[in-house]
Every structure is written in C-alpha cells, then in structure tokens.
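We read letters as residues; the fold follows as tokens. Both lines appear below.
***
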Amino acid sequence: MKINHNMGAMNSKRNMKINNKASSKSMEKLSSGLRISSAGDDVAGLSISEKMRAQIRGLEQASRNAEDGISLIQTADGALNETHSIIQRMRDISVQAANDTNTESDRKALQEEMNELTSEINRIANTTEFNTKKILTGGQGNGVKAINLDFNGTEVTHTKGNDAITKNMKVAITLDAGISSNIYPQPDRFSFQINGIDLGVTYVYLPNGNVGDITYGVKDPNGFITQSPTPNGVVTGGQIKITNTANGTLEAKDIKKVAEATAKLVQSQIDTNPALNGDFRAYAKGSQIIVEALDSGNSTGANATMNVTGIASANKAFNVTDVNTGGQVGAGGTIAGQDIPAKGASTTIDFSTIAATKDDIKALVDAGMSINGQTIQFFDSTDGPYMGKAIGIDIKDATNAEELVQAIIDQTIMKLQGVDLTRDGNKLVITSQIVGENSVLEVFNGNSYNEDIEIKLQVGSNKEQSMLVSIGNMRARALGLVGAGAGFTKEPGVTDGTDTKKYERALDVTTSKSAESAIKIIDEATKKVSDQRAALGAYQNRLQYVVNNLDNSAENTISSESKIRDTDMALEVTRNTKSDILLQAAQSMMAQANSAPEQIIQLLK
C-alpha cells in the first residue's frame, strides 16, 4: 500500500475527465444540431461542406436571378401587348383611309390619329424599364460607345433635304410685238417659255395673211427666225399652211397643226437646253400642247397644259391660253423667277467642346457614331491595330478638334457611302449626296440604336453558366412605321413620346394609294412585334425550367451537405447517455479510491 501516489484515484480522475469531455461534446452537438461545429470535428468533412454551402447559395441566388429575368420578360411582353393593340388600330385606320368614300378632311383626321399612335409606340419603347433599365430601345453593337454629343437633348439628329419649290410652274406662250418689224409689217410674235426660260420658239404672221402666212422657228442672235437644221438633222422651223375662216378664226385642222408644230419645236429646244433636258417633255394632244415634268428628272410633280384656240380678231390669226399649275417642282425649280437649287440633308457636329485637348481626344477611344446606318469608331494605333467591325478612325496624331475632324474626313474617303464630309473649323459638316425631298440624314450618338439589346442572366452558381435574352428595338423607326420619302408624310408629325418635339414622319394615309401601301408596312411591323413576343415567351418558358432545375439541384445539394455537417440526433443521444453513465461511474470510483488510503491509518494505530 502506498500513500504518495493513489493510482486508483488518479485512474478514476483520468476516466472521469475523458467522459466529461465526451459528455460536453455530445451536448454541444445535440444543442447545435451540427456534427461539425469546428475544423477539428472533421477536417475533410468541413472542406467538403463549405464547398457545398457555396454551391447551395449560388444555386439559390441563380434561381432568384432567373425569377428576376422572368419578371423582366413579363414587363417587356406586357408593353408589347399594348404595342400590338396600337398597330392593329393603325391597320384599321389604313384600311379605312384606303376607302375613297372618305373626304380630304376625313383622311386628315385619320392622319392625325396615325401620328399620335406612332408617337405612343415610341413612348412605350422609350419608357418601359425594369429596375431603371430600358429594355425596348435596343442596344449598342460592335462595342461602340456614345460620344458626348448633344443633339438638342436627343441621341439622334434627323435632318431632311428639300426640293426647290415654285408656287406656280408657269409654262406659257406670251405675246410680244415689234420683233422683226423690218421684215414683216406690224407683225405679232408669240414666244414660248418654261419656268421663265425663253426657248426662243417664235411665231410671226401677217395681220391679213391667209395660206402660208404663219412662220415659226427659233430666233437667231439678231431676233430673226431661222430654219437651220439641228445637229441631228431636224429642221427647227418652217411654215404652217392655214386657212382663216370668214371671221378670222382658225379651222380645227389648222389648230391641230399649230399644236403639233409647237410641241415638236418646243421639245427640240428642251433637248438642247441643259437646264431643261431630262426634266420636261412636250407633246400635242388634239388642240393642246402639254409640257410634262418627268419623274425620272430633277423636276417632279407638276404638269402644264395649253390650249391653242382660234380668235375672232382682225389682227390675230390664233391665240394660246397659258395655264399655271400649282404644287411642287423638284430640284432646279423656280420661285418668282429666281432659281432655288435643291439641297441634300445636312447636319453639323461641333467637336470643340469634347476634343479641346489631347487628353480629351484620347478619351474618345472606342467611342463613335453612326451616319445613315454606317458606324465609325475611334481607336489609337499606338495601342494596336483596329479590331472592330465599324470604320476605324485612328486618332493617335490628333491634338485638337480641327485635327480630329480632318482625321475623320481623311479616313472615311471611299468608305462612308452616300454622304460627303467637310470641315468648317472645329465642326464636321455631314451632307447627304442625295438631293431633294427624299434626302434623309440620320446621325446616331454611338452605334445605331436599331440593334438588339442583350441581357445576360446568371442562371448558374459558377462562371460561364449564363444565358442571353435578346430584345429588339421596338420603337416606331425599327418597326418601319416612320421614315422618309414615298409612303410617309411630308412633314414630321411624330414625337418620341416623352416631349412635344416632332422629328419623325408617320405613314401617310391622306390618299387611297398611300393608305394601301401603309397596310403592307403595318403587317410587317405586326410580324416583327409578334416575332419578338414569341421569343420572349420562349425565354420565359425556358427560364421557368431553369428555376425548377436550380431549385431541385439546391435541394439535393442541401441534403448531401446535411449528411456531412448535421448531427444524427438518435446516435448522439445514445452517445450522450453512455458518456453520462460513465461519468457518474468514474465519479463514484474516484470517491472510493480517495477513501482507500484511510486504511493505512488503521495500520499505524
């Protein structure tokens, strides 16, 4: 027996300590529900569990992302549903306007509604947003950023050319007296003019003449009538044999002769006059001389007709009535005798405020603009060659606005089609090569906004697990419901829907023909909207399956992670019971071991 070391007590103490730790750990697991509450509990299990937890949270967030995507698509589809309704109403208007039972005022009212509906389509597209993000206005393609240009507060400037206009295109045969009087006693002269241009076509006759008394031809520099052949061999003058009736008027057959001879001679002079050749033609129709403006030429939309009639007068054998026709005349027309040349659409961009210094110019790299659908983009060749899809403009040597503008001009030669670029100091002047009313120029800040906007949805817990939702530009221009030229109104009547500025031209329903054309265009617009809504529906259905799959994956991953990290309560309760019993036994044995040395005292007595 020993008293310095009570081995029984020490052994009981050690076992009691072990059982106490086991009991404490078991209670920790039972109270937290976790099998692994610290790295020491299961090193490998903790690592696996944490990776699974990251996946679970990623899957849950991806599911929420997909739900947000569905909400965005539903927002877009709801807006396009209204666009569809508007387009259907526009078609009704076109069908109604095509009916010739409508009066001019009726069609004017229909046109006003057409303008307003078109503006509303713009408003819907321009204001439909999800989380402040516009979703129906298209996007920027080719990676071309917008330049900080100010087009009166808009992202696009739209300009249009103009035809020269005359209030009255005057085609007339006018009476003049006293010419060639040294040859013909007291003659009268009729001279033919078109738009103020005297063709020199002249008739001279004697007051009391009968057969062969009307001589016609082209004046020479001295005012005399010549009968010289033209280069193609056609004689430019001659005599009309007529017979006056008893009262001094022309017979019907002679009136026809005058008309035919006049038309032929006028046409020969039109052919040799650069200002008129290709724009007009002259011909006779019965007693009428018709001068017609040709659509293929520079003058369009105006004809003139003159009637040759006999007149009861002792001094005149015949008379010609002049007719003034109202309306527009194309390029090269006149107003009150003054030539007004037709112009192409033109706009000026001032670069002085955005390219004042070298640093300002450097900041323009990757930015650009679109001119009539053709995009230019700035780059700096010191950083490498241009790799974009637009027309690259190297600005490495430009140090100020003038040099930048000149670089644009120099590097777009033979590349930018349909426009001419010139420099006016710090300003870039863009002019359409097409002149007249059909000349249209559109400059977009950045790339043309007719491209689709691509919305990336992160629908997975890891990288490269996304899908793209593409939504097109649903504004009126992208749908073909506004434009310029045939089929559209002559004056702007459409706004962007957010202000009162009218800068686009709606479909024209003021005539039966234009209304019929509008029906086809509207049908095409309906198809575009239908195609976009069909795509949105497909996206939405796909995303719903994405959500279902993500939720299922998250659930299964949670189950797997739970098996690793969570406590098996039944097993842990059993272990806790065992630890408690052993702890109590150790305490009892330790008490007995501590009482054993007392027996030694009995031996010492």
Observations:
- The two ends are 16 Å apart (CA to CA).
